[in-house]
């Protein structure tokens, strides 16, 4: 009879070890710092990122409000035109080169784009004109985020 229990214990040992590992990982996950929720700042302007790729050079940006500038910027940056139908009547595109957009905020008709320098990064950000105060000629200002940690 004792041999039977030993045989069963050998079979259950790997299951018991895996269960203990699962409990340990669950405890560690519960005790470690929780993920910070994504919050938006007041007066933020909704946007969507269409393209994110690598580029070299200095930090720069370009605002696109018509189809000719849309094609010219794609060609200047060496990007292929996507299947996305850019509508200059309802959208404004901002090409950000060598920086990463962190947040947006609109103040007195100027959209402040808070960025962090990021070498070899190109980001195409689209804004809906319905969310902008200055629909005809929107102004964008790049603001470098302070690195306080």
Observed structural traits:
alpha+beta; elongated; 5 strands; 149 residues; 28% helix; 5-stranded mixed β-sheet; 2 helices
Number of helices: 2
Radius of gyration: 26 Å
Main sheet summary: 5 strands, mixed
Class from secondary-structure proportions: alpha+beta
**What's the SSE pattern?**
HEEHEEE
- Total strands: the figure is 5
For the termini, the CA-CA separation is: 64 Å
The percentage helix is: 25-40%
What general outline do the C-alpha atoms trace?
Answer: elongated
Give the low-pLDDT segments: none
Binned strand content: 35-45%
Mean pLDDT across residues:
79
Topology:
Layout: H1 2-31, E1 47-53, E2 60-64, H2 67-77, E3 91-107, E4 110-128, E5 139-144
Parallel strand pairs: 4-5
Antiparallel strand pairs: 1-4, 2-3, 3-4
Describe the structure.
This protein has a domain at 47-144. Helix content is 28%, strand content 36%. The longest helix has 30 residues, at 2-31. Strand 3 and strand 4 form a beta hairpin. With 149 residues, the protein is an alpha+beta fold. It is built from two helices and five strands; from the N terminus they run H-E-E-H-E-E-E. Strands 1, 2, 3, 4 and 5 form a five-stranded mixed beta sheet that branches. The N and C termini lie far apart (64 Å).
């Amino acid at each position: 009879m004792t041999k039977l229990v030993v045989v069963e214990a050998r079979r259950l040992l790997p299951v018991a070890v895996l269960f203990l590992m699962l409990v340990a990982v669950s405890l560690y996950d519960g005790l470690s710092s929780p993920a910070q929720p994504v919050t938006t700042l007041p007066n933020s302007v909704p946007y969507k990122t269409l393209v994110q790729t690598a580029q070299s050079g200095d930090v720069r940006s370009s605002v696109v409000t018509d189809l000719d500038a849309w094609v010219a910027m794609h060609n200047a940056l060496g990007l292929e035109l996507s299947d996305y139908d850019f509508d200059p009547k309802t959208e404004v595109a901002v090409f950000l080169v060598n920086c990463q957009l962190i947040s947006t905020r609109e103040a007195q008709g100027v959209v402040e784009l808070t960025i962090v320098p990021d070498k070899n990064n190109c980001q195409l950000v689209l804004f809906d004109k319905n969310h902008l105060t200055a629909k005809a000629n929107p102004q964008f200002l790049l603001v470098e985020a302070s690195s306080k940690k």
